[in-house]
Design brief:
With 311 residues, the protein is α+β, with helices and mostly antiparallel strands. 15% of the residues lie in helices and 33% in strands. The protein has one domain. The protein is built from four helices and 15 strands. The strands form three sheets. Strands 1, 2, 3, 6, 7, 8, 9, 10, 13, 14 and 15 form an eleven-stranded antiparallel sheet that branches. A hairpin with a 6-residue loop joins strand 1 and strand 2. The longest helix is centred in the last third of the chain and has 17 residues. The N terminus is likely disordered.
Amino acid sequence: MNAIDDSSVWPREEQPMRVPKLLKTLLWMMACGLPVLPAAGQEAAATKSLEQLRLSAYAQLDGSESVFHIKGTAYGFVVGERPSPLFGLEGYNVRRLVPVPGSDGSYYLASREILFYTDAKTGEPIERWDNPYTGENVEVFHIQNDPVNFRFNEKDGAYIGASLDGSREYGPSPPPEEFGDYYVWHADVFPFYPLLGWEQNYTAGELFDFYVPKSGLTDDGPFETMVSWTRVGPWLPWMLMQDHDGMMVYHARSRRLAGWDELPEWVRERVSNDHPEYRHAPESVDPAVRNVTSFSFYYGEMKKRASAEGG
């Protein structure tokens, strides 16, 4: 309701009371279900926008590290045959937000990830695998992607996904759905590009759901975030099945931990002993360096071995 400013309408003592700007803001926060007063003994927390909440669900806005534990199963899918679990996978992604130099509010998401393929029944990491489709016993190449970087361009308070050099933008994120105490953002991505060593374009689907607590709007610390991930794509190159019909289906869950120490002990020991560079997220991003994938890592390893043998 608009306040009446003409003092000639009522005597001064009867004029309608104007609503101060601060009170209007508090009323708006109450209507949105946001807390307006701190708990006893606590200072009032800053309120994020929904876009800031979405960005901070990926990594902390202050640039500190976030560790996401990942665990799931990989299935073989051949039309006309019963799908079956091939192996499990478990590991993590460690990441941080890095401001884009020279920008005003844009960020890189700098990360690296390591996941170990595991026995589908025991959960123990495997180094060789009996391929049920070909009968071959093959060497396992665990997921060692370094780096895995993304970019968010800031535009009018929104964070738009973009290529690392910023030249291409992928459009704004769709608004979240509300599931009780959570906002749920989704991202359905369908990679399609030429791939070294592959006769056809790499074609896949990466389907994500991000479950973000509404309390994160006012939480200062790293609030819990849960992610559901499904990938549909070609057989892995180390499976030696490029000409075999069918595809891989991954289904995994991910959760932000309070820190490195909350990862399973065997994961921490394996990384500390064999891959210590994966303990921490990258400190910076070179936009000219391409992201590593399971395919580029494998072909890179094969190239190194061939070079070593040739020398």
